Amino acid sequence: MSPRKAAALRHGDRTLREHLIATADRMMSERGAAGLTVRAIAREAGVADGVLYNHFDGKEELLALALRARVRRVERELGPPPEPGAGTVEANLRVHVEHGLALHRALLPALAGLTAQPDVLARFAASAGPGDAWRDRLHDYLRAERDLGRIAARTSAAAATSMIVGVCHEAVLSALLHASEPSPVPVDEVVATVLHGIASR
Question: Looking at the UniProt feature table, which residue ranges are given for the DNA-binding region (predicted)?
Answer without folding.
Answer: 37-56
